[in-house]
């Protein structure tokens, strides 16, 4: 059972955040919103500025310019205290028992020891760690330590979640438990921002995507919106040679291999897809005419190139 107030509606807006380290502008005028009830994936190569943006959002790092809004007003310390944050650097005490450590962290966030304990046991159960509650952290594998770190961020009845690479190091079962937990939060209106290099996972989970490259936002939208930015690609499979498609107006031929053609519509000729299909049908059998859905990894390569 999820722990947290029902139907919280929070929107976080990041506006013009900028941070320099010496000559390097690590985060350069970054703006985007993390909408209530949305899972927002934050992606970008190593050093793109994701962690720096998240740390500024959490008030752990000063900003050179820009601001963060919480439901339209400048974010406060109290708002941040109600945000479940998972830092990139994992900070557990190796010698302490898992349950004691989590109770301590819960109390720091204002929970009573008994509430904290109930939330902890529920989360340990979900991550298959209930029987390890009294083990010292150092006895856990790295992946299981990661699960404990996640519990620390999620057990405190957060009203927003900002998670720096929460899926890294998790096995597929833990990835599924984590994904379910995050969905429970978004279904109650909680905004979730998480960074990840696992694009397949981001594609599967996220409603919204922000792509950072060299400190700047290079794409911001739904996966479908990002897909529709470029030319639309189709595959045409005929019963005979497809070479004639090269001469169809408004169609750019990417590749023809015998009866199969990969095409892009240039957008210059309205209804080019219908013209193409009519032509193809008038020449004989059409086995397939379908849009090619680019994987997120391809879109990512294009926007960060
Ligand atoms: N405290 C610091 N002092 C100097 N440079 C820093 C500091 N923190 C970050 N940087 C630099 O800022 C840039 C952005 O780093 P950041 O950690 O935000 O990237 P990231 O997108 O989270 O990368 P990764 O995916 O590798 O975790 C990098 O070039 C990094 O070396």
From TrEMBL:
<feature type="domain" description="ABC transporter">
    <location>
        <begin position="12"/>
        <end position="239"/>
    </location>
</feature>
<comment type="similarity">
    <text>Belongs to the ABC transporter superfamily.</text>
</comment>
<dbReference type="InterPro" id="IPR003593">
    <property type="entry name" value="AAA+_ATPase"/>
</dbReference>
<dbReference type="InterPro" id="IPR025302">
    <property type="entry name" value="DrrA1/2-like_C"/>
</dbReference>
<dbReference type="GO" id="GO:0016887">
    <property type="term" value="F:ATP hydrolysis activity"/>
</dbReference>
<dbReference type="Pfam" id="PF00005">
    <property type="entry name" value="ABC_tran"/>
</dbReference>
<protein>
    <submittedName>
        <fullName>ABC transporter, ATP-binding protein</fullName>
    </submittedName>
</protein>
<dbReference type="GO" id="GO:0005524">
    <property type="term" value="F:ATP binding"/>
</dbReference>
<dbReference type="Pfam" id="PF13732">
    <property type="entry name" value="DrrA1-3_C"/>
</dbReference>
<keyword id="KW-0547">Nucleotide-binding</keyword>
<dbReference type="InterPro" id="IPR027417">
    <property type="entry name" value="P-loop_NTPase"/>
</dbReference>
<dbReference type="InterPro" id="IPR003439">
    <property type="entry name" value="ABC_transporter-like_ATP-bd"/>
</dbReference>
<dbReference type="InterPro" id="IPR017871">
    <property type="entry name" value="ABC_transporter-like_CS"/>
</dbReference>
<keyword id="KW-0813">Transport</keyword>
<keyword id="KW-0067">ATP-binding</keyword>
């Amino acid at each position: 059972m999820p722990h947290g107030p029902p139907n919280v509606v929070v929107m976080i807006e990041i506006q013009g955040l900028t941070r320099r380290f010496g000559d390097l502008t690590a985060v350069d005028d970054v703006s985007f919103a993390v909408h209530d009830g949305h899972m927002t994936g934050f992606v970008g190569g190593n050093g793109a500025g994701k962690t720096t943006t998240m740390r500024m959002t959490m008030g752990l790092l000063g900003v050179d310019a820009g601001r963060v809004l919480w439901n339209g007003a400048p974010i406060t310390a109290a708002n941040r205290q109600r945000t479940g944050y998972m830092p990139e650097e994992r900070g557990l005490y190796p010698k302490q028992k898992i349950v004691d450590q989590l109770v301590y962290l819960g109390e720091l966030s204002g929970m009573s020891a008994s509430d904290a304990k109930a939330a902890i046991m529920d989360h340990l159960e979900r991550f298959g760690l209930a029987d390890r509650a009294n083990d010292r952290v150092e006895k856990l594998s790295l992946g299981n330590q990661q699960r404990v770190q996640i519990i620390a961020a999620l057990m405190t009845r957060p009203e927003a979640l900002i998670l720096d690479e929460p899926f890294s190091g998790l096995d597929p079962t833990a990835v599924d438990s984590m994904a379910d937990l995050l969905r429970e939060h978004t279904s109650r209106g909680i905004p979730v921002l998480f960074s990840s290099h696992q694009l397949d996972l981001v594609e599967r989970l996220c409603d919204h995507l922000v792509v950072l490259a060299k400190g700047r936002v290079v794409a911001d939208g739904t996966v479908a919106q990002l897909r529709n930015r470029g030319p639309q690609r189709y595959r045409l499979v005929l019963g005979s040679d497809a070479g004639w498609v090269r001469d169809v107006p408004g169609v750019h031929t990417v590749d023809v291999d015998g009866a199969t053609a990969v095409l892009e519509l240039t957008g210059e000729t309205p209804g080019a897809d219908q013209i193409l299909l009519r032509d193809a049908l008038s020449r004989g059998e059409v086995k397939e005419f379908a849009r090619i859905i680019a994987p997120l990894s391809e879109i990512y390569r294009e926007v960060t190139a």
